[in-house]
Design goal:
- The complex is a heterodimer of chains A (about 400) and B (about 250).
- With about 400 residues, chain A is α+β, with helices and mostly antiparallel strands.
- Chain A has a single domain, classed as Cytochrome-c3 Hydrogenase, chain B.
- Helix content of chain A is about 50%, strand content about 15%.
- The longest helix of chain A has 30 residues.
- The relative contact order of chain A is 0.18.
- Chain B is globular.
- In chain B, a hairpin with a 3-residue loop joins strand 2 and strand 3.
- Chain B has a domain of about 160 residues: Beta Polymerase, domain 2 (2-Layer Sandwich).
- Strand 6 of chain A pairs antiparallel with strand 1 of chain B, so a sheet runs across the interface.
Chain lengths: ~400, ~250
Protein backbone atom coordinates (compact mmCIF):
# COMPACT_ATOMS: atom_id res chain seq x y z
CA UNK A 1 0.00 0.00 0.00
CA UNK A 2 1.37 3.39 -0.86
CA UNK A 3 0.29 6.57 0.77
CA UNK A 4 0.04 9.93 -0.91
CA UNK A 5 2.04 12.74 0.60
CA UNK A 6 -1.10 14.37 1.90
CA UNK A 7 -2.04 11.19 3.72
CA UNK A 8 1.46 10.91 5.12
CA UNK A 9 1.30 14.45 6.40
CA UNK A 10 -2.09 13.88 7.98
CA UNK A 11 -0.74 10.71 9.61
CA UNK A 12 2.28 12.46 11.05
CA UNK A 13 0.29 15.30 12.54
CA UNK A 14 -2.22 12.79 13.93
CA UNK A 15 0.62 10.89 15.53
CA UNK A 16 1.89 14.07 17.09
CA UNK A 17 -1.47 14.87 18.69
CA UNK A 18 -1.95 11.31 20.00
CA UNK A 19 1.46 11.05 21.56
CA UNK A 20 0.91 14.19 23.59
CA UNK A 21 -2.35 12.93 25.08
CA UNK A 22 -1.14 9.41 25.79
CA UNK A 23 2.21 10.31 27.28
CA UNK A 24 2.45 8.52 30.59
CA UNK A 25 4.66 9.31 33.50
CA UNK A 26 5.66 6.53 35.84
CA UNK A 27 4.06 6.71 39.24
CA UNK A 28 5.39 4.00 41.53
CA UNK A 29 5.06 6.03 44.65
CA UNK A 30 4.68 9.63 45.59
CA UNK A 31 2.50 12.22 43.94
CA UNK A 32 3.02 13.55 40.45
CA UNK A 33 2.62 17.27 39.94
CA UNK A 34 2.08 18.44 36.42
CA UNK A 35 2.88 22.02 35.45
CA UNK A 36 1.96 23.26 32.06
CA UNK A 37 2.14 23.06 29.08
CA UNK A 38 0.15 26.23 29.66
CA UNK A 39 1.56 27.90 32.73
CA UNK A 40 2.40 31.54 33.33
CA UNK A 41 5.91 30.67 34.49
CA UNK A 42 6.92 28.78 31.37
CA UNK A 43 7.39 31.62 28.83
CA UNK A 44 5.74 29.57 26.15
CA UNK A 45 4.64 26.00 26.35
CA UNK A 46 6.88 23.96 28.59
CA UNK A 47 5.54 21.08 30.61
CA UNK A 48 7.19 20.15 33.86
CA UNK A 49 6.40 16.85 35.54
CA UNK A 50 7.58 16.67 39.12
CA UNK A 51 7.39 13.64 41.36
CA UNK A 52 6.84 14.74 44.93
CA UNK A 53 7.38 13.34 48.36
CA UNK A 54 5.24 15.62 50.48
CA UNK A 55 6.45 19.10 49.58
CA UNK A 56 9.80 17.96 48.25
CA UNK A 57 10.64 17.22 44.64
CA UNK A 58 12.17 13.78 44.11
CA UNK A 59 12.49 14.07 40.38
CA UNK A 60 11.57 16.76 37.89
CA UNK A 61 11.52 16.34 34.16
CA UNK A 62 10.83 19.12 31.68
CA UNK A 63 8.98 17.96 28.58
CA UNK A 64 9.50 20.07 25.51
CA UNK A 65 8.68 19.93 21.86
CA UNK A 66 5.36 21.74 21.86
CA UNK A 67 6.93 24.50 19.83
CA UNK A 68 9.49 22.60 17.83
CA UNK A 69 9.51 24.14 14.38
CA UNK A 70 12.44 22.33 12.85
CA UNK A 71 14.51 25.36 11.91
CA UNK A 72 17.61 23.28 11.30
CA UNK A 73 15.77 21.33 8.60
CA UNK A 74 14.05 24.40 7.16
CA UNK A 75 17.32 26.31 6.97
CA UNK A 76 18.67 23.66 4.60
CA UNK A 77 16.14 24.66 1.92
CA UNK A 78 16.41 28.41 2.28
CA UNK A 79 18.98 30.79 0.92
CA UNK A 80 21.21 32.56 3.41
CA UNK A 81 19.24 35.84 3.43
CA UNK A 82 16.00 33.88 3.85
CA UNK A 83 17.29 32.06 6.92
CA UNK A 84 17.37 35.29 8.96
CA UNK A 85 13.57 35.44 8.79
CA UNK A 86 13.40 32.08 10.54
CA UNK A 87 16.02 32.66 13.17
CA UNK A 88 14.36 35.91 14.22
CA UNK A 89 11.76 33.71 15.86
CA UNK A 90 14.10 31.74 18.09
CA UNK A 91 14.38 34.10 21.04
CA UNK A 92 11.49 36.40 20.29
CA UNK A 93 12.24 38.94 23.01
CA UNK A 94 15.66 39.87 21.65
CA UNK A 95 15.30 39.03 17.99
CA UNK A 96 18.00 41.20 16.54
CA UNK A 97 20.58 39.40 18.65
CA UNK A 98 19.57 36.11 17.00
CA UNK A 99 20.47 37.33 13.54
CA UNK A 100 23.91 38.59 14.38
CA UNK A 101 25.85 35.33 14.97
CA UNK A 102 24.38 33.74 11.84
CA UNK A 103 25.28 36.74 9.71
CA UNK A 104 28.76 36.88 11.26
CA UNK A 105 29.32 33.18 10.53
CA UNK A 106 28.25 33.65 6.91
CA UNK A 107 30.47 36.74 6.62
CA UNK A 108 33.36 34.77 8.05
CA UNK A 109 33.00 32.14 5.34
CA UNK A 110 32.60 34.76 2.62
CA UNK A 111 35.50 36.77 4.02
CA UNK A 112 33.41 39.91 3.99
CA UNK A 113 33.59 42.49 6.73
CA UNK A 114 30.85 44.96 7.47
CA UNK A 115 31.87 48.64 7.36
CA UNK A 116 32.62 50.26 10.74
CA UNK A 117 29.35 52.16 10.84
CA UNK A 118 27.40 48.95 10.33
CA UNK A 119 29.39 47.20 13.04
CA UNK A 120 28.69 50.08 15.38
CA UNK A 121 24.95 50.12 14.70
CA UNK A 122 24.85 46.33 14.98
CA UNK A 123 26.38 46.51 18.42
CA UNK A 124 23.95 49.24 19.50
CA UNK A 125 20.94 47.26 18.30
CA UNK A 126 22.38 44.11 19.84
CA UNK A 127 22.58 45.78 23.23
CA UNK A 128 19.14 47.35 22.81
CA UNK A 129 17.76 43.85 22.22
CA UNK A 130 19.49 42.78 25.40
CA UNK A 131 17.87 45.60 27.34
CA UNK A 132 14.46 44.84 25.82
CA UNK A 133 14.83 41.17 26.69
CA UNK A 134 16.30 41.39 30.17
CA UNK A 135 14.17 44.32 31.35
CA UNK A 136 11.16 42.10 30.88
CA UNK A 137 12.88 39.35 32.83
CA UNK A 138 13.53 41.69 35.75
CA UNK A 139 9.82 42.34 36.11
CA UNK A 140 8.84 38.80 35.26
CA UNK A 141 11.03 37.24 37.91
CA UNK A 142 9.22 39.36 40.49
CA UNK A 143 5.79 38.36 39.23
CA UNK A 144 6.76 34.72 39.54
CA UNK A 145 7.68 35.25 43.17
CA UNK A 146 4.31 36.91 43.66
CA UNK A 147 4.85 40.65 43.24
CA UNK A 148 2.69 42.02 40.45
CA UNK A 149 3.79 45.65 40.25
CA UNK A 150 7.31 45.28 38.79
CA UNK A 151 6.10 43.47 35.68
CA UNK A 152 3.96 46.46 34.74
CA UNK A 153 6.95 48.73 35.17
CA UNK A 154 8.90 46.36 32.96
CA UNK A 155 6.31 46.39 30.19
CA UNK A 156 6.03 50.16 30.46
CA UNK A 157 9.75 50.84 30.15
CA UNK A 158 10.56 48.11 27.65
CA UNK A 159 8.30 50.02 25.30
CA UNK A 160 10.85 52.86 25.08
CA UNK A 161 13.48 50.46 23.79
CA UNK A 162 11.12 48.65 21.44
CA UNK A 163 10.06 51.98 19.97
CA UNK A 164 13.69 52.81 19.21
CA UNK A 165 14.27 49.40 17.63
CA UNK A 166 11.11 49.87 15.60
CA UNK A 167 12.20 53.29 14.37
CA UNK A 168 15.37 51.85 12.86
CA UNK A 169 14.25 48.45 11.69
CA UNK A 170 10.50 48.80 11.17
CA UNK A 171 9.83 45.78 13.36
CA UNK A 172 9.23 45.71 17.08
CA UNK A 173 9.90 42.03 17.63
CA UNK A 174 11.22 40.64 14.38
CA UNK A 175 13.50 43.26 12.85
CA UNK A 176 15.09 41.10 10.12
CA UNK A 177 17.46 44.01 9.66
CA UNK A 178 20.88 42.43 9.52
CA UNK A 179 22.34 41.60 6.13
CA UNK A 180 25.42 39.73 5.04
CA UNK A 181 27.92 42.56 4.62
CA UNK A 182 26.14 45.18 6.66
CA UNK A 183 22.68 46.46 7.48
CA UNK A 184 19.51 47.00 5.53
CA UNK A 185 19.36 50.70 6.23
CA UNK A 186 20.97 53.60 8.03
CA UNK A 187 19.78 55.22 11.23
CA UNK A 188 16.85 57.64 10.88
CA UNK A 189 17.35 61.31 11.63
CA UNK A 190 17.31 62.28 15.29
CA UNK A 191 17.44 58.66 16.40
CA UNK A 192 20.61 58.97 18.41
CA UNK A 193 19.20 61.75 20.62
CA UNK A 194 15.94 59.89 21.17
CA UNK A 195 17.76 56.72 22.10
CA UNK A 196 19.76 58.60 24.68
CA UNK A 197 16.47 59.71 26.21
CA UNK A 198 15.21 56.13 26.21
CA UNK A 199 18.38 54.87 27.87
CA UNK A 200 17.96 57.46 30.65
CA UNK A 201 14.49 56.08 31.33
CA UNK A 202 15.87 52.56 31.39
CA UNK A 203 18.49 53.55 33.93
CA UNK A 204 15.73 54.86 36.18
CA UNK A 205 13.93 51.58 35.60
CA UNK A 206 17.00 49.62 36.72
CA UNK A 207 17.23 51.69 39.90
CA UNK A 208 13.55 51.05 40.51
CA UNK A 209 14.05 47.32 40.10
CA UNK A 210 17.03 47.44 42.42
CA UNK A 211 14.89 49.00 45.16
CA UNK A 212 11.65 47.25 44.42
CA UNK A 213 12.83 43.71 43.72
CA UNK A 214 16.48 43.08 44.54
CA UNK A 215 16.27 45.05 47.78
CA UNK A 216 12.99 43.48 48.80
CA UNK A 217 13.19 41.28 51.89
CA UNK A 218 10.57 38.83 50.69
CA UNK A 219 12.26 38.50 47.32
CA UNK A 220 15.60 37.82 48.96
CA UNK A 221 14.05 35.30 51.33
CA UNK A 222 12.55 33.46 48.38
CA UNK A 223 15.65 33.47 46.19
CA UNK A 224 18.81 33.55 48.32
CA UNK A 225 20.35 30.13 48.74
CA UNK A 226 17.69 28.63 46.46
CA UNK A 227 18.77 26.64 43.43
CA UNK A 228 22.52 26.84 43.99
CA UNK A 229 24.56 25.75 40.97
CA UNK A 230 28.33 25.34 41.54
CA UNK A 231 30.63 26.61 38.80
CA UNK A 232 31.93 23.20 37.66
CA UNK A 233 28.43 21.74 37.38
CA UNK A 234 27.30 24.81 35.45
CA UNK A 235 30.14 24.38 32.97
CA UNK A 236 29.60 20.66 32.44
CA UNK A 237 25.97 21.38 31.56
CA UNK A 238 26.98 24.16 29.19
CA UNK A 239 25.24 26.93 31.08
CA UNK A 240 26.07 30.30 29.65
CA UNK A 241 25.32 33.96 30.02
CA UNK A 242 24.18 35.33 33.35
CA UNK A 243 23.53 31.82 34.66
CA UNK A 244 27.21 31.02 34.39
CA UNK A 245 28.35 34.40 35.68
CA UNK A 246 25.87 34.06 38.54
CA UNK A 247 27.89 30.97 39.51
CA UNK A 248 31.06 33.00 39.67
CA UNK A 249 32.63 32.11 36.33
CA UNK A 250 34.13 35.22 34.79
CA UNK A 251 33.36 34.50 31.18
CA UNK A 252 31.64 36.67 28.62
CA UNK A 253 31.90 36.08 24.88
CA UNK A 254 31.60 39.80 24.21
CA UNK A 255 34.94 40.30 25.94
CA UNK A 256 36.62 36.92 25.54
CA UNK A 257 35.84 36.09 21.93
CA UNK A 258 35.04 39.35 20.21
CA UNK A 259 33.88 38.71 16.71
CA UNK A 260 32.70 41.46 14.40
CA UNK A 261 31.15 43.59 17.12
CA UNK A 262 32.84 46.63 18.62
CA UNK A 263 32.80 45.82 22.34
CA UNK A 264 36.54 46.43 22.55
CA UNK A 265 35.99 50.09 21.67
CA UNK A 266 33.96 50.84 24.75
CA UNK A 267 34.63 50.75 28.42
CA UNK A 268 32.48 48.30 30.28
CA UNK A 269 32.55 45.59 32.91
CA UNK A 270 31.63 41.95 33.19
CA UNK A 271 29.66 41.27 36.36
CA UNK A 272 29.88 38.04 38.28
CA UNK A 273 28.45 36.84 41.56
CA UNK A 274 29.98 34.03 43.62
CA UNK A 275 26.81 32.61 45.19
CA UNK A 276 25.29 30.69 42.27
CA UNK A 277 21.76 30.94 43.64
CA UNK A 278 18.58 32.36 42.13
CA UNK A 279 19.23 35.75 43.64
CA UNK A 280 22.72 35.99 42.13
CA UNK A 281 21.38 35.21 38.66
CA UNK A 282 18.83 37.98 39.06
CA UNK A 283 21.44 40.36 40.39
CA UNK A 284 23.88 39.68 37.56
CA UNK A 285 21.16 40.33 34.99
CA UNK A 286 20.23 43.58 36.70
CA UNK A 287 23.85 44.75 36.56
CA UNK A 288 24.08 43.61 32.96
CA UNK A 289 21.15 45.75 31.97
CA UNK A 290 22.89 48.76 33.50
CA UNK A 291 26.10 47.81 31.75
CA UNK A 292 24.23 47.52 28.45
CA UNK A 293 22.96 51.07 29.02
CA UNK A 294 26.58 52.14 29.51
CA UNK A 295 27.68 50.43 26.32
CA UNK A 296 24.87 51.92 24.25
CA UNK A 297 25.49 55.43 25.58
CA UNK A 298 29.20 55.28 24.76
CA UNK A 299 28.56 53.86 21.31
CA UNK A 300 25.91 56.44 20.49
CA UNK A 301 28.44 59.23 20.96
CA UNK A 302 30.95 57.68 18.59
CA UNK A 303 29.05 56.25 15.63
CA UNK A 304 31.52 56.60 12.73
CA UNK A 305 30.39 57.98 9.40
CA UNK A 306 30.39 55.95 6.23
CA UNK A 307 28.33 53.37 4.40
CA UNK A 308 26.35 50.67 6.20
CA UNK A 309 26.80 48.01 3.55
CA UNK A 310 29.93 46.41 2.16
CA UNK A 311 30.14 45.30 -1.46
CA UNK A 312 28.54 41.87 -1.70
CA UNK A 313 27.17 40.05 -4.74
CA UNK A 314 23.46 40.35 -5.48
CA UNK A 315 23.03 36.59 -5.26
CA UNK A 316 24.80 35.34 -2.20
CA UNK A 317 26.72 32.12 -2.54
CA UNK A 318 28.79 31.22 0.47
CA UNK A 319 32.09 29.46 -0.31
CA UNK A 320 32.52 25.90 0.90
CA UNK A 321 33.70 25.60 4.47
CA UNK A 322 32.61 25.35 8.06
CA UNK A 323 32.28 28.09 10.60
CA UNK A 324 31.05 28.42 14.14
CA UNK A 325 30.35 31.86 15.50
CA UNK A 326 28.78 32.46 18.88
CA UNK A 327 27.84 35.71 20.55
CA UNK A 328 26.73 36.61 24.03
CA UNK A 329 22.99 36.94 23.53
CA UNK A 330 20.58 38.12 26.22
CA UNK A 331 19.94 34.51 27.24
CA UNK A 332 23.52 33.30 26.96
CA UNK A 333 25.78 31.88 24.29
CA UNK A 334 24.02 31.58 20.97
CA UNK A 335 25.95 30.17 18.07
CA UNK A 336 25.48 28.87 14.56
CA UNK A 337 27.55 26.11 13.07
CA UNK A 338 27.25 26.55 9.32
CA UNK A 339 28.45 23.92 6.88
CA UNK A 340 28.48 25.31 3.37
CA UNK A 341 29.16 23.55 0.10
CA UNK A 342 29.42 26.71 -1.95
CA UNK A 343 25.76 26.87 -2.85
CA UNK A 344 22.84 29.21 -2.30
CA UNK A 345 21.66 27.11 0.62
CA UNK A 346 23.57 26.13 3.74
CA UNK A 347 24.25 22.38 3.77
CA UNK A 348 23.68 22.16 7.50
CA UNK A 349 22.98 24.73 10.18
CA UNK A 350 23.34 23.68 13.79
CA UNK A 351 21.73 26.18 16.12
CA UNK A 352 23.32 26.28 19.53
CA UNK A 353 20.74 28.08 21.59
CA UNK A 354 21.36 29.24 25.12
CA UNK A 355 18.08 28.20 26.72
CA UNK A 356 18.42 24.57 25.61
CA UNK A 357 21.62 24.13 27.59
CA UNK A 358 20.45 26.40 30.42
CA UNK A 359 17.31 24.34 30.80
CA UNK A 360 19.09 20.99 30.66
CA UNK A 361 20.31 21.54 34.20
CA UNK A 362 16.70 21.72 35.47
CA UNK A 363 16.45 18.01 36.45
CA UNK A 364 19.69 18.39 38.42
CA UNK A 365 18.90 21.63 40.18
CA UNK A 366 15.25 20.86 40.93
CA UNK A 367 16.03 17.60 42.71
CA UNK A 368 15.24 17.97 46.39
CA UNK A 369 13.82 21.50 46.34
CA UNK A 370 10.41 22.41 47.69
CA UNK A 371 7.42 23.05 45.46
CA UNK A 372 7.30 26.86 45.78
CA UNK A 373 11.00 27.03 44.88
CA UNK A 374 10.43 25.37 41.51
CA UNK A 375 9.09 28.61 40.13
CA UNK A 376 11.80 30.73 41.72
CA UNK A 377 14.49 28.52 40.18
CA UNK A 378 12.92 28.18 36.74
CA UNK A 379 12.29 31.91 36.72
CA UNK A 380 15.88 32.71 37.59
CA UNK A 381 17.31 30.30 34.99
CA UNK A 382 15.36 32.37 32.44
CA UNK A 383 14.47 30.55 29.29
CA UNK A 384 12.40 31.38 26.25
CA UNK A 385 10.61 28.39 24.82
CA UNK A 386 11.36 29.39 21.26
CA UNK A 387 15.01 29.26 22.20
CA UNK A 388 14.69 25.74 23.62
CA UNK A 389 12.54 24.23 20.91
CA UNK A 390 13.91 26.06 17.87
CA UNK B 1 38.27 48.25 7.88
CA UNK B 2 38.99 51.93 8.29
CA UNK B 3 40.87 53.23 11.28
CA UNK B 4 39.03 54.57 14.29
CA UNK B 5 39.56 58.31 14.54
CA UNK B 6 42.31 59.41 16.92
CA UNK B 7 40.04 61.56 19.08
CA UNK B 8 37.69 58.67 19.75
CA UNK B 9 40.48 56.46 20.99
CA UNK B 10 41.64 59.28 23.21
CA UNK B 11 38.15 59.78 24.56
CA UNK B 12 37.77 56.08 25.30
CA UNK B 13 41.15 56.01 27.05
CA UNK B 14 40.19 58.99 29.18
CA UNK B 15 36.86 57.43 30.07
CA UNK B 16 38.60 54.20 30.98
CA UNK B 17 41.13 55.96 33.23
CA UNK B 18 38.33 57.89 34.92
CA UNK B 19 36.27 54.80 35.48
CA UNK B 20 39.19 52.85 36.86
CA UNK B 21 39.87 55.61 39.35
CA UNK B 22 36.21 55.61 40.34
CA UNK B 23 36.09 51.83 40.63
CA UNK B 24 38.99 51.90 43.05
CA UNK B 25 37.09 54.29 45.33
CA UNK B 26 33.57 52.91 45.48
CA UNK B 27 32.00 49.47 45.94
CA UNK B 28 29.18 48.16 43.69
CA UNK B 29 25.88 49.94 44.21
CA UNK B 30 24.02 46.89 45.41
CA UNK B 31 25.15 45.52 48.75
CA UNK B 32 25.31 41.88 47.85
CA UNK B 33 28.95 41.00 47.47
CA UNK B 34 29.20 40.76 43.69
CA UNK B 35 32.29 41.80 41.82
CA UNK B 36 33.10 43.29 38.46
CA UNK B 37 36.16 42.79 36.32
CA UNK B 38 37.22 45.42 33.87
CA UNK B 39 37.22 44.52 30.24
CA UNK B 40 40.64 43.64 28.94
CA UNK B 41 42.42 45.42 26.14
CA UNK B 42 41.43 44.77 22.49
CA UNK B 43 41.36 41.35 20.93
CA UNK B 44 44.49 39.59 19.82
CA UNK B 45 45.16 39.69 16.11
CA UNK B 46 44.86 36.90 13.59
CA UNK B 47 48.41 35.58 13.78
CA UNK B 48 48.26 35.20 17.54
CA UNK B 49 45.08 33.13 17.46
CA UNK B 50 46.64 30.92 14.85
CA UNK B 51 49.64 30.27 17.07
CA UNK B 52 47.29 29.46 19.87
CA UNK B 53 45.54 26.85 17.74
CA UNK B 54 48.87 25.34 16.64
CA UNK B 55 49.97 25.08 20.23
CA UNK B 56 46.70 23.47 21.26
CA UNK B 57 46.95 21.02 18.38
CA UNK B 58 50.47 20.04 19.39
CA UNK B 59 49.22 19.29 22.88
CA UNK B 60 46.28 17.33 21.52
CA UNK B 61 48.50 15.27 19.24
CA UNK B 62 50.49 14.24 22.27
CA UNK B 63 47.48 13.57 24.46
CA UNK B 64 45.40 11.69 21.92
CA UNK B 65 48.10 9.62 20.23
CA UNK B 66 46.59 7.33 17.59
CA UNK B 67 43.05 8.34 18.56
CA UNK B 68 43.59 11.52 16.54
CA UNK B 69 42.82 10.80 12.88
CA UNK B 70 42.94 14.24 11.28
CA UNK B 71 43.05 17.91 12.15
CA UNK B 72 42.42 21.25 10.52
CA UNK B 73 43.22 24.82 11.50
CA UNK B 74 41.55 27.84 9.95
CA UNK B 75 43.64 30.84 11.00
CA UNK B 76 41.63 32.95 13.39
CA UNK B 77 38.56 30.78 13.05
CA UNK B 78 39.23 27.70 15.07
CA UNK B 79 40.50 24.18 15.38
CA UNK B 80 38.83 21.05 14.08
CA UNK B 81 39.92 17.51 14.91
CA UNK B 82 38.61 14.08 13.94
CA UNK B 83 38.96 11.23 16.41
CA UNK B 84 38.36 7.50 16.48
CA UNK B 85 34.66 6.84 17.15
CA UNK B 86 35.38 3.51 18.81
CA UNK B 87 37.21 5.39 21.57
CA UNK B 88 34.96 8.44 21.52
CA UNK B 89 34.60 8.85 25.29
CA UNK B 90 38.34 8.43 25.91
CA UNK B 91 39.14 10.90 23.15
CA UNK B 92 36.74 13.58 24.40
CA UNK B 93 37.98 13.12 27.96
CA UNK B 94 41.57 13.46 26.75
CA UNK B 95 40.72 16.66 24.89
CA UNK B 96 38.97 18.02 27.96
CA UNK B 97 41.95 17.34 30.19
CA UNK B 98 44.63 18.42 27.70
CA UNK B 99 43.06 21.78 26.89
CA UNK B 100 41.37 22.42 30.21
CA UNK B 101 38.16 22.49 28.17
CA UNK B 102 35.60 21.95 30.88
CA UNK B 103 32.85 23.95 29.21
CA UNK B 104 30.54 21.63 27.28
CA UNK B 105 29.30 23.74 24.40
CA UNK B 106 27.14 21.45 22.27
CA UNK B 107 26.90 18.08 20.58
CA UNK B 108 25.19 17.28 17.34
CA UNK B 109 25.65 15.29 14.16
CA UNK B 110 25.76 15.77 10.43
CA UNK B 111 24.56 13.70 7.49
CA UNK B 112 27.01 14.22 4.64
CA UNK B 113 24.92 12.57 1.95
CA UNK B 114 23.62 15.20 -0.50
CA UNK B 115 19.84 15.29 -0.52
CA UNK B 116 18.35 12.89 -3.07
CA UNK B 117 15.46 15.28 -3.71
CA UNK B 118 15.67 18.16 -6.20
CA UNK B 119 16.15 21.19 -3.98
CA UNK B 120 17.38 23.35 -6.79
CA UNK B 121 16.97 27.06 -6.48
CA UNK B 122 15.01 27.27 -9.73
CA UNK B 123 12.33 24.65 -9.11
CA UNK B 124 9.20 25.48 -7.21
CA UNK B 125 8.73 22.02 -5.78
CA UNK B 126 10.98 19.20 -4.70
CA UNK B 127 11.14 16.09 -6.81
CA UNK B 128 8.97 13.34 -5.41
CA UNK B 129 11.10 10.53 -6.79
CA UNK B 130 14.43 10.21 -5.10
CA UNK B 131 17.40 10.35 -7.46
CA UNK B 132 20.68 8.63 -6.89
CA UNK B 133 22.49 10.98 -4.56
CA UNK B 134 25.63 12.69 -5.71
CA UNK B 135 28.90 11.46 -4.21
CA UNK B 136 29.61 12.66 -0.71
CA UNK B 137 32.09 15.43 -0.02
CA UNK B 138 33.29 15.97 3.49
CA UNK B 139 34.19 19.25 5.14
CA UNK B 140 37.21 20.10 7.25
CA UNK B 141 39.27 17.12 8.50
CA UNK B 142 37.64 14.88 5.87
CA UNK B 143 35.65 11.80 6.67
CA UNK B 144 34.86 8.26 5.68
CA UNK B 145 31.23 7.68 6.51
CA UNK B 146 27.86 9.31 6.00
CA UNK B 147 27.24 10.31 9.61
CA UNK B 148 29.64 12.28 11.71
CA UNK B 149 29.30 13.30 15.31
CA UNK B 150 30.11 16.91 16.09
CA UNK B 151 31.01 18.03 19.56
CA UNK B 152 32.35 21.37 20.66
CA UNK B 153 34.19 21.94 23.89
CA UNK B 154 35.36 25.29 25.12
CA UNK B 155 38.27 26.21 27.29
CA UNK B 156 37.56 29.23 29.43
CA UNK B 157 41.15 29.58 30.59
CA UNK B 158 42.54 29.50 27.05
CA UNK B 159 39.69 31.44 25.44
CA UNK B 160 39.38 28.91 22.64
CA UNK B 161 37.08 26.17 21.50
CA UNK B 162 37.73 22.93 19.68
CA UNK B 163 35.37 21.05 17.42
CA UNK B 164 35.64 17.27 17.62
CA UNK B 165 34.29 15.01 14.88
CA UNK B 166 33.95 11.24 14.72
CA UNK B 167 32.88 8.94 11.88
CA UNK B 168 29.98 6.62 12.61
CA UNK B 169 29.09 3.44 10.72
CA UNK B 170 26.62 3.97 7.86
CA UNK B 171 24.30 1.07 8.55
CA UNK B 172 23.96 1.32 12.30
CA UNK B 173 25.36 4.62 13.58
CA UNK B 174 26.11 4.14 17.25
CA UNK B 175 28.51 5.46 19.78
CA UNK B 176 29.12 5.48 23.53
CA UNK B 177 27.44 8.18 25.56
CA UNK B 178 29.25 11.19 26.98
CA UNK B 179 26.84 11.59 29.89
CA UNK B 180 29.40 10.37 32.42
CA UNK B 181 31.95 12.92 31.23
CA UNK B 182 29.62 15.87 30.67
CA UNK B 183 26.16 15.45 32.21
CA UNK B 184 24.97 18.23 29.89
CA UNK B 185 25.39 15.87 26.92
CA UNK B 186 22.19 14.12 27.94
CA UNK B 187 19.74 16.35 26.09
CA UNK B 188 22.06 16.99 23.16
CA UNK B 189 22.41 13.25 22.62
CA UNK B 190 18.66 12.74 22.83
CA UNK B 191 18.28 15.35 20.12
CA UNK B 192 20.91 13.71 17.89
CA UNK B 193 19.25 10.38 18.56
CA UNK B 194 15.84 11.38 17.27
CA UNK B 195 16.99 13.70 14.51
CA UNK B 196 19.69 11.45 13.00
CA UNK B 197 18.90 8.01 14.40
CA UNK B 198 22.23 7.67 16.16
CA UNK B 199 22.20 5.23 19.07
CA UNK B 200 24.12 6.24 22.18
CA UNK B 201 25.15 3.18 24.18
CA UNK B 202 24.69 3.61 27.91
CA UNK B 203 22.47 6.68 27.66
CA UNK B 204 20.29 6.82 30.78
CA UNK B 205 17.17 8.28 29.18
CA UNK B 206 16.49 6.97 25.69
CA UNK B 207 13.42 8.97 24.74
CA UNK B 208 12.62 11.51 22.09
CA UNK B 209 13.10 15.05 23.29
CA UNK B 210 11.10 17.04 20.74
CA UNK B 211 9.22 14.59 18.56
CA UNK B 212 6.27 12.47 19.67
CA UNK B 213 7.21 9.02 20.97
CA UNK B 214 5.99 7.04 17.98
CA UNK B 215 7.34 9.36 15.31
CA UNK B 216 8.80 7.42 12.41
CA UNK B 217 11.94 8.51 10.67
CA UNK B 218 14.78 10.85 11.52
CA UNK B 219 13.98 14.33 10.24
CA UNK B 220 17.47 15.76 9.87
CA UNK B 221 18.71 12.92 7.71
CA UNK B 222 19.04 14.16 4.18
CA UNK B 223 16.84 11.43 2.75
CA UNK B 224 13.93 12.45 4.97
CA UNK B 225 11.74 14.50 2.64
CA UNK B 226 10.55 17.94 3.67
CA UNK B 227 6.89 17.41 2.87
CA UNK B 228 6.01 21.10 2.90
CA UNK B 229 8.11 21.55 -0.23
CA UNK B 230 6.09 18.90 -2.05
CA UNK B 231 2.63 19.99 -1.03
CA UNK B 232 2.76 23.49 -2.41
CA UNK B 233 5.05 25.67 -4.51
CA UNK B 234 7.74 27.54 -2.66
CA UNK B 235 7.34 31.29 -3.12
CA UNK B 236 10.90 32.16 -2.13
CA UNK B 237 12.74 31.33 -5.35
CA UNK B 238 15.69 33.60 -5.86
CA UNK B 239 14.87 35.76 -8.82
CA UNK B 240 16.99 38.85 -9.16
CA UNK B 241 16.14 41.33 -11.88
CA UNK B 242 19.05 43.24 -13.30
CA UNK B 243 19.36 46.90 -12.44
CA UNK B 244 19.66 49.24 -15.41
CA UNK B 245 23.24 49.19 -16.64
CA UNK B 246 24.14 45.91 -14.95
CA UNK B 247 25.58 43.07 -16.98
CA UNK B 248 25.59 40.12 -14.64
Amino acid sequence: MTLTEREQLAYISGQAADARVNLEVETEDGMVLNMGPQHPATHGTLRLVAKLDGEQVIKAEPIMGYMHRGYEKLAEVRTYPQVTTLINRIDWLGSFANEVPFILAAEQLMEVEAPPRAQWIRTILFELSRIANISLYLGDMAVQIGATTPVFFAFRDREHVLNQIERVTGGRFHPNFDRIGGLKDDLPKGWIEETKGAIKKLRTFCDEMDDLVAGNEIFQARTRGIGVIPADIAMSYGLSGANLRGSGVDWDLRRDQPCGLVYDKVDWKVWTHPDGDSYSRFWVRLQETREACNIVEQLLDNVPAGPVMAKVPRIIKVPAGEAYVATENPLGEMGYYIVSKGELYPFRVKIRSASFSNMSIAPWVLKGVFVPDIIAILGSLYFILGDIDR
Amino acid sequence: MTEIPEYLLKKAAEARAKREAAAGAGAPSSASGGTATSVAEPEEDLAETDEQAEEALAQLTEALGDMLLASHIEPGRGLWIRVDAARWVDAVTAVRDALDAFFFDWLSAIDWMPSPYGREHDTEQDETEAKDPEPMEWGYTGGETRFQLLCRLHSITRHMGVLIKADLADADPRCATLVNVFPGANWHEREAMEMFGIAFDGHPDVRNIYLPGEFEGHPLRKDYPLLARRMKPWPGIVDVELMPGEDT
